[in-house]
Amino acid sequence: MPERKGLVTFGGKPVTLVGDELGVGDRMPDVVLVGNDMKEAKLGSFAGKVLVLSAVASLDTSTCDIETRRFNAEAVKLGDDVRVVTVSMDLPFAQKRWCGAAGVDRVVTLSDHRDAEFGNRFGVLMKENRLLARAVFVVDRQGAVRYIQLVPEVGQEPDYEAVLAAVRELTVTD
Fold first, then answer.
1. What strand order describes the sheet that includes 131-132?
2. Which domains can be identified in the chain, with CATH numbers?
């Protein structure tokens, strides 16, 4: 697997990202993840929708909690043509517990804990701790990546307005 250094820090320390680097215009890899019901979930099942893919380290951290709650609130306003999915290495049981406690019902949470296929195929797996770097991908209805935001420090929130602008552009012109 390819490795990239110097793009992201975790707690202020540089980390190594493992996996293929995606670019705008690339096809979204149809990876297999695990849903909160312990069943396999393919990203390709969201075809025909604009997809916001939010990669986070763990829902049990404050920044990931804030981010996922924010996207949950935004998802209500985005309409039925948009799906928001948060992917982490958290176990499906932990994701389900967290969603229930947080009242998150509009964001789909999926786990990459089995094979780190999402982390490797999207290029956001941190080698040093086997967690996902904070990143947001916006995918159009045809499965092409149209926007990528790799957050330089895992402990920082993404630029929500930039993500939402990319989504709005796709829902108006796509």
1. 3-10, 13-18, 125-126, 131-132
2. 3-173 (3.40.30.10)
